[in-house]
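[job 0417] fold request received: Major facilitator superfamily (MFS) profile domain-containing protein
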Amino acid sequence: MSKSPATGAMGAAEPPEGDIVDNPRTWSENKKLLAVLGGILASFTAVFGTSVYVASVPGVVEEYGVSETLAISLVSIYSLGQVIGPAITTASSELFGRRRVLQLSILSALVLTVGSACAQTFRSLAVLRFLASLAISPCPSFALSVINDLWDVESSKTGSSVVLLAAMATIIPAALGMVCGAPLVAVRDWRWTFWLTAILLGAALLAVLPIPETFAPQIVRQRARKESNEAPTRGSWKELAWALFARPIHMLLVEPVIFPTALVSAIAQGVVFCLYAAYPLILSTAYSFNLAQIGLSFLPMFVGNVLAVPVLGIIDRSTAVREHFSATDAVGSTLLPERRLGGAILGGILMPISLFWGGWTARQDIHWIVPLLSGLLFGMSYTLILISYAIYKNDIYGAEFGASAFSAEVMMRYVLSAPVPLFTVHMVNRIGFGWSMTLMGLICAVLIPIPWIFMHHGARLRRRSRFVLHEGCRDTTPGVTCQGPHSLRDVQGAEG
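[job 0417] inference complete; emitting structure tokens
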């Protein structure tokens, strides 16, 4: 079955390959990099806004006279916006294009963040912070969508590198926010974490203002409108709701790969949120650290994030040459997606070790550098887990369903991690920092077998998938059923 090039809700239409003006993939590499820069910076800021606020918690407690738990609850409130926002605004981008919605998202987040910096009551701060999160939350998925608009990631080295950069932009702010925010608050005041976020959003807005549209169906619609003064038919909101909200939930519930990998990523992020509340408590009591010193204590975690990249590259290259992974897969791939799981295996082992290490060495009779160095191991494990699973799922689902798989993981991560800061302070006060980290470490240890299971049974699990597009069956028309043992079965509302 075929579609008109100007129709289809989810991007079936593409400009002609030879059309230098209309086809984003024919742009120069410099133009492509400039087009994606603002989206990546906005993605960075979306996550940065979560962690940098933690440095403001003591100031919020003092300014508004609220409890520490209530002040840190704004981390949870911000996280809820990260769950709801992408489904709403990404659907709008499919109707109106990436450029317009991305610019509106960043501008709205900028205005709301400035409002947060000027908030006179805790209630207004909470509302504005939630709305700012809601506005900026689509940017990580937008950045990945724009990258896929501009490059064939599977065959382009530049595209693959930009994907890695975009992924790192959503990981390193988890530690970098505290590293930057705490000294800033110590020198200025707690509102400056919001002003810093606003400055980053302003830079991102300036970067995205001049970029042209990259979404192929929107480009076709714009050209058709100019030529005939009649816009082509867009997909219905019902189709978009399925593709961009219902489908991720459906995949989370029925896909054998999505739920376990999203659960591991969610637990890892939950531990990060736990450290946001636990680090200030233990470091201020055991070592009398001030706010700036507490913020700099997250620096080893940031270094671990960065070091994970070359480690992941070494693992990926070493596993790719093994005979087990170079054998042809039953679905036609020359390299099995499971070769990507080496980083997740190593990260899964290192994470509980780092938590046991940090938990039981954070004592007055042990030098502070000893527990802080555990953050290096934790930061590395966190990055290895998140990036390995992200690349693994991208290899499996490709451009057609990769966005839905990513949305499913984001929902899971923020839904499970959002409540963690609310009970962390009570947990540490009740059972101590050592046992709190031990509990977290044991939960992480239980999840160690998951990548091993996929390593040995991944091919069989992929054959059970309803969303994996196998070789020889690339028609994504709703309801199409291909013949063969590895067919695409009844995929509804397929992208592309």
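[job 0417] notes: The two ends are 13 Å apart (CA to CA). Residues 1-235 form a domain with the Growth Hormone; Chain: A; fold (CATH 1.20.1250.20).
[job 0417] exit 0
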